[in-house]
Design goal:
Elements lengths: L2 H19 L8 H8 L3 H8 L7 H10 L6 H12 L2 E3 H4 L4 H14 L2 E6 L10 H15 L5 H11 L9 E7 L1 H4 L5 H14 L5 E6 L13 E4 L3 E5 L3 E5 L2 H15 L5 H17 L2
Parallel strand pairs: 2-3, 3-4
Antiparallel strand pairs: 1-7, 2-5, 5-6, 6-7
Helix pairs in contact: 1-5, 2-3, 4-5, 7-9, 8-9, 11-13
């Protein structure tokens, strides 16, 4: 977990403890507070110790239980402050993948230039419907969330309209490993690779492929997207990070430019994709 995120959780926990100890009518023990709210007492101590992330409902219940409903707004602002940058998958996917895709669509719609890096999957902006559907189903199974793959696919395909607008430019790097990964049936992957080949030469897309044999100056870590050199969206297993401070953006752009040195383009990129397709054919 991000150090900044954990520090923010701990600071919120300290504030909750302070409110418990100064409750209207006298200080409360954790057990007394839990009894008032109807929680197991362990939840109180996890929240105060920064070992569990509160929900807005948790904070409202806490504020009311200590006799200080007026503090809810302050507590909720604290929560929204650190969750605006680190968006846990558990919370984001509670209503399925479609709302997450809609949020992405809004961010991408405002952008004119995007730098993307993906090491294990084909970038969403270049995915076929069938490939995207299998990706969403894999994650729904992993996180145990609603299986709204068809709605999520429609939202992702809506985002691809961005590629056909004038004045837009997608600079994307893909590690060759992503072209071989059977996160879908071979027939779906073959169609996806054909789609990827067709994007080479599009005036709005600069597609670079980093061959498995290429020398890397930095490790091929998690994927990320930089929008207009103002916002970074990066994925980890526990959360999606939305970072807009200049230092973070500069770091991710530096990583992207370093990875770019290992990429091939044009006919060389098509050659790598063709090699991956032959490999898929040989496995069926």
């Amino acid at each position: 977990m991000s150090t900044d995120y954990q520090r923010a959780r701990e600071a919120l926990g300290m504030r909750l403890r302070e409110l418990r100890l100064s409750a209207v009518g006298g200080r409360l023990t954790g057990t007394q507070l839990a009894r008032r709210i109807g929680w197991p007492h362990s939840k109180v101590y996890k929240l105060e110790g920064g070992r569990q992330t509160a929900t807005s409902d948790d904070l409202r219940s806490w504020a009311q239980a200590v006799g200080r409903p007026d503090t809810f707004a302050e507590l909720d602002v604290r929560l929204k402050g650190f969750e605006s940058h680190i968006r846990s998958w558990r919370r984001q996917l509670a209503a399925g993948h479609r709302p997450v895709q809609d949020t992405w669509n809004a961010a991408v719609d405002r952008a004119h230039t995007i730098h993307a890096w993906e090491e294990s999957v084909v970038p969403g902006m270049l995915q076929t419907a069938d490939y995207a559907r299998h990706i969403f189903l894999r994650y729904a199974d992993l996180f145990g969330t609603a299986r709204d793959a068809d709605d999520a696919v429609r939202a992702r395909l809506e985002r691809q309209a961005w590629l056909y607008r004038g004045g837009r430019r997608l600079h994307t790097l893909v590690w060759e490993a992503a072209l071989h990964a059977l996160v879908c049936p071979p027939s779906v992957l073959r169609a996806q690779l054909d789609r990827l080949t067709g994007t080479v030469g599009m005036d709005t897309v600069e597609l670079g492929i980093i061959p498995l044999s290429a020398s890397l100056r930095v490790p091929a870590a998690n994927g990320f997207w930089v929008l207009d050199e103002e916002l970074v969206i990066a994925e980890d297993w526990h959360a999606e990070l939305w970072l807009d401070d200049s230092d973070a953006v500069a770091t991710y752009l530096r990583v992207w430019n370093t990875l770019r040195e290992s990429a091939v383009y044009g006919t060389d990129a098509q050659g790598v994709i063709a090699r991956a397709r032959r490999s898929v054919d040989s496995r069926t």
